[in-house]
């Protein structure tokens, strides 16, 4: 998802980061490119314009342009603005009411409403251990109620028995009563859709909301419909008190325009993203992580937070200088190992660095325990100064000597060498992203 936008912005940022000094004109030129990238991603024009204006104003400030890492600072400003555009905080479902908490699903036909109802039910049941009842109020489409019943069987979530001939509001009242009597925590009401927004549909939604007093009214929209999805959301939110939006088919959405403009246009948070047809393909929508993905930074923020806790500032400077020269020798690895011991093992860290998964796999197990780190330190300690600076020198004979000297085995020496290789490759990747100093710079 967001692939093309991510590529475009990546190009702009690489150019920004590649320069030591930035002028106001450089920033303005970059921001024009950002604007084009957003419009190509199908972001609503006023939203793209506001975004770029706001970022430009911040980015041409003196502190930014005069800072040591101006490119990095600009990227951070864009990243923050993107997070804000997507909605600043991740919003969970608010179901803290006297049970049953009603979740009402609204939206056009084919938007993925029924599927999403089942996905949410499954999630509430499995993750939050809620007792969930689902009811379909769709009496327009002949098979709608059966479809929900089938999904209920698949997810092992109870569905309200179907009674032929009842109107939507009657079904809603019956579902409320059943949920109360049978002690359900949550009642999910799947309403009827239409091909287009029309007044009859809106009136029906309002009548259902009146009898069921929902804790959440979620609008389900298909992200592939881009700005239409945003317009639909606008029409619904004018008439029905929506509490949030679920974007479906984000798995097939390379542009992301709906996701990017939804919050700004409707003021409603995106609560979930549908990412596939399977019933577990539902993700909580974390604006910050999505912004990170769009900017191709992995979960760098968490990584830097963790690193900043234990890496001394001078260490970081020194590492940055080495990285800039493309050097990462055994002495550096030794320093890193010592840091890992302080940080609680490589396992936690490796998952966060893009490209580090491999280094992790090179280790015997996913998590590095204290003993392995101690062994590695001993092996490096048994190397000559030359070997440490140039690990490529270490041939079979030298491996045997190192293993003996450190009380380890040749196999372990091999693992260490492999790890060094993987790590220097990962370091090269980080360097491309602006270096460790750059990463730290991102934290402001
Ligand atoms: P409704 O008319 O709004 O109730 O829509 P449905 O729930 O029946 O969904 C219509 C189609 O979209 C079905 O084939 C679903 O499997 C599919 N669908 C729903 N959500 C997603 C999603 O997030 N990703 C993908 N790829 N397909 C989805």
From TrEMBL:
EC number, UniProt record: 3.6.5.4
Family: Belongs to the GTP-binding SRP family. SRP54 subfamily.
Function as written in the Swiss-Prot or TrEMBL entry: Involved in targeting and insertion of nascent membrane proteins into the cytoplasmic membrane. Binds to the hydrophobic signal sequence of the ribosome-nascent chain (RNC) as it emerges from the ribosomes. The SRP-RNC complex is then targeted to the cytoplasmic membrane where it interacts with the SRP receptor FtsY. Interaction with FtsY leads to the transfer of the RNC complex to the Sec translocase for insertion into the membrane, the hydrolysis of GTP by both Ffh and FtsY, and the dissociation of the SRP-FtsY complex into the individual components.
UniProt-recorded Gene Ontology molecular function terms: 7S RNA binding; GTP binding; GTPase activity
Alphabetized HAMAP family for the sequence: SRP54
Record field: catalytic activity: GTP + H2O = GDP + phosphate + H(+)
SUPFAM superfamilies reported for this sequence: P-loop containing nucleoside triphosphate hydrolases, Signal peptide-binding domain
Compartments, record wording: Cell inner membrane; Cytoplasm
Native source species: Hephaestia caeni
Any GO CC annotation of this UniProt entry: signal recognition particle
Residues that coordinate or bind GTP: 107-114, 190-194, 248-251
UniProt remark on domains: Composed of three domains: the N-terminal N domain, which is responsible for interactions with the ribosome, the central G domain, which binds GTP, and the C-terminal M domain, which binds the RNA and the signal sequence of the RNC.
SRP54-type proteins GTP-binding domain boundaries: 269-282
Chief localisation class: membrane
Keyword Cytoplasm attached: yes
Gene3D superfamilies the record matches: P-loop containing nucleotide triphosphate hydrolases (3.40.50.300), Signal recognition particle SRP54, nucleotide-binding domain (1.20.120.140), Signal recognition particle, SRP54 subunit, M-domain (1.10.260.30)
Membrane topology: Peripheral membrane protein
Record's keyword terms, sorted: Cytoplasm, GTP-binding, Hydrolase, Nucleotide-binding, Ribonucleoprotein, RNA-binding, Signal recognition particle
Self-association and partners: Part of the signal recognition particle protein translocation system, which is composed of SRP and FtsY. SRP is a ribonucleoprotein composed of Ffh and a 4.5S RNA molecule.
Biological processes per GO annotation: SRP-dependent cotranslational protein targeting to membrane
Keyword Glycosyltransferase: no
Annotated protein name in UniProt: Signal recognition particle protein
């Amino acid at each position: 998802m967001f692939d093309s936008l991510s590529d475009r912005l990546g190009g702009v940022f690489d150019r920004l980061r590649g320069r030591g000094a930035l002028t106001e004109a450089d920033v303005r030129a970059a921001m024009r490119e950002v604007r084009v990238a957003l419009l190509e991603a199908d972001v609503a024009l006023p939203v793209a314009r506001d975004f770029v204006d706001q970022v430009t104003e911040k980015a041409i400030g003196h502190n930014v342009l005069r800072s040591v890492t101006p490119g990095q600072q600009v990227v951070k400003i864009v990243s923050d603005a993107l997070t804000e555009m997507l909605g600043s905080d991740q919003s969970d479902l608010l179901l803290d009411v006297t049970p049953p908490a009603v979740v009402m699903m609204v939206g056009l036909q084919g938007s993925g409403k029924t599927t999403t109802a089942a996905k949410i039910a499954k999630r509430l049941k499995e993750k939050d251990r809620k007792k969930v009842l689902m009811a379909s109020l769709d009496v327009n489409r002949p098979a709608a109620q059966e479809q929900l019943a089938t999904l209920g069987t698949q997810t092992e979530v109870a569905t309200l028995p179907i009674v032929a001939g009842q109107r939507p509001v009657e079904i809603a009242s019956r579902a409320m009563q059943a949920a109360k009597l049978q002690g359900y925590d949550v009642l999910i009401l799947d309403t009827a859709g239409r091909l287009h927004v029309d007044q009859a549909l809106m009136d029906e939604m309002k009548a259902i909301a009146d009898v069921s007093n929902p804790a959440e009214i979620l609008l389900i929209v298909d992200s592939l419909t881009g700005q239409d999805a945003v317009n639909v959301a606008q029409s619904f939110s004018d008439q029905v008190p929506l509490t949030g939006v679920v974007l479906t088919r984000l798995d097939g959405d390379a542009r992301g325009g709906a996701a990017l403009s939804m919050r700004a246009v409707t003021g409603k948070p995106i609560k979930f993203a549908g990412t596939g047809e399977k019933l577990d393909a539902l993700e909580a929508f974390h604006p910050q992580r999505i912004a990170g993905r769009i900017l191709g930074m992995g979960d760098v923020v968490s990584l830097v937070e963790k690193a900043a806790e234990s890496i001394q500032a001078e260490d970081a400077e020194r590492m940055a200088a080495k990285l800039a020269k493309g050097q990462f020798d055994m002495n550096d690895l030794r320093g890193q190992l010592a840091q890992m011991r302080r940080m609680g093992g490589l396992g936690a860290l490796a998952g966060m660095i893009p490209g580090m998964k491999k280094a992790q796999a090179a280790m015997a197990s996913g998590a590095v325990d204290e003993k392995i780190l101690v062994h590695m330190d001993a092996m490096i300690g048994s190397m000559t100064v030359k070997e440490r600076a140039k690990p490529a020198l270490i041939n079979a004979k030298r491996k045997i000597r190192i293993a003996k000297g450190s009380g380890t085995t040749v196999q372990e020496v091999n693992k260490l060498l492999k790890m060094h290789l993987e790590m220097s490759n990962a370091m090269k990747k980080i360097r491309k992203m602006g270096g460790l100093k750059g990463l730290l710079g991102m934290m402001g």
